[in-house]
Each structure stands twice: as C-alpha cells, then as structure tokens.
Design goal:
By secondary structure, this protein is of the alpha+beta class. The chain is built from 6 helices and 4 strands.
Length: about 220
C-alpha cells in the first residue's frame, strides 16, 4: 500500500511538472495575445526567438521621458536661433552706435537694433526657463527608472508575420515588459526602446545640463 501511495504521489508530481509552463512559454503565450491588435495578419504570426530576463526598473517612466525628449528637441533650435539673432542685433548696434554728431537716421537704426536685441533676449529667457523645467523632469524620471527591486520580466522577442500587403516580413523584433505573473505587458519596437536607452546613458553619464544639451544639439 505504501508503495502504491508513493507511486501515485510521484505520478501526480510528474504531471504537475509537465503542465507547468516555462517563463519563455508564458511570455510567448502573452505576446501572441498582445500582438493580435498590432499585426495586420495575426494568424500568420510565428515566434522565432524569445529571451526572458528579470526586470528591476520602472517602465512607467519611458513614455514621459520620450515626450520630454521631444519637447527638448523642439526647443533647442529656438534657443540657438535666439542666440544667433542676438549676435546679429549686437553687430547692428555696433555698426550704428551713435556719436554726438550722428544723424537721426543713425540713431533710429541703433535704437531699432537695441529694441530687437531686448525682445529676442526676452524670448530666450522664456525658452531657457522651459528648457530648465524639461531637463529637471527628464532627470527626475530617469532617476525613478532605476527601481532596484524585481518588478517583472523584460522579454526580447523575434517573430515574423505577413505585412499589410500579405507578404512575409523580414523578422521583426520587439521588447515586451511583463508583470511577474505574465498576465499583462507593454511592448516597444526595438528602435524606439534603443532611443530611450541612449538618452538614459547620456543622462546617467552627464556631469552637467550642458552635457545633455550637447546631445540634443547633435
């Protein structure tokens, strides 16, 4: 009787073990469901490679960081334009700098250049304030990204499927961030996530705001 119970226990344990999905299998099951709303022909989806790694970061900051980067990218050219226009206005002021014997025309030209410089400096000050706020937000969110505790799984996944024209695409690759139980996930195309990783590295290695601004100027 004892041997029968032992055999039964071993059989149950074996069946339970065989029914337990690996992390890769759990990830692929969730990814397949997620991609239904992403692919043109979900039925053609074919997984090629799945790599699952533990995740210790707060992915909720990725979108705010990318949005802030867009704001900085848009404002940097305006700041640079203001700086160039100020130099031009200063050159005009030097050219028309009035002496005691100069004409009214010269004095008007100088006054106009001086007014333009002051107006541009006012715009530059506004842009610089906005830039400072964006840089502060960027650094704050990136500091939150490094969470330090296990929060789920980062899944690198390669696959192929039919495109909009019904032609088999070259293998695509995406990054999926899954919760601990593989019940929900967020996905990013590799190119977009690599841009995030790049700015993450820039901010982490920057010793001043100027270092970050140099990156956006490039």
């Amino acid at each position: 009787m004892k041997n029968v119970i032992t055999l039964l226990f071993c059989t149950v344990a074996f069946v339970m073990a065989s029914c337990t999905l690996s992390n890769e299998e759990k990830a692929e099951k969730l990814i397949k469901e997620t991609l239904k709303d992403y692919l043109f022909h979900p039925d053609s989806y074919e997984p090629l490679l799945t790599r699952v790694d533990s995740m210790f970061v707060d992915i909720s900051v990725i979108e705010p960081v990318m949005e802030t980067c867009e704001h900085i990218k848009n404002i940097m050219p305006k700041i640079n334009d203001c700086k160039r226009e100020i130099k031009y206005a200063e050159s005009s002021m030097n050219l028309w700098s009035p002496e005691s014997y100069d004409s009214q025309y010269t004095r008007r030209q100088y006054a106009q250049a001086k007014k333009e410089k002051e107006e541009i400096e006012s715009d530059l000050n506004k842009y610089n304030k906005k830039l400072s706020a964006h840089l502060a937000s960027l650094k704050k969110n990136i500091a939150k990204y490094h969470k330090g505790e296990f929060v789920g799984w980062a899944v690198s996944h390669r696959f192929r499927s039919l495109n909009r024209l019904g032609v088999m695409n070259i293998p695509g690759e995406m990054i999926f961030f899954c919760d601990k139980e593989f019940t929900t996930c967020e996905c990013y195309e590799v190119d977009k996530f690599e841009k995030f990783v790049k700015i993450l590295k820039v901010v982490d290695e920057a010793t001043s705001d100027e270092d970050i601004m140099d990156y956006f100027n490039e």
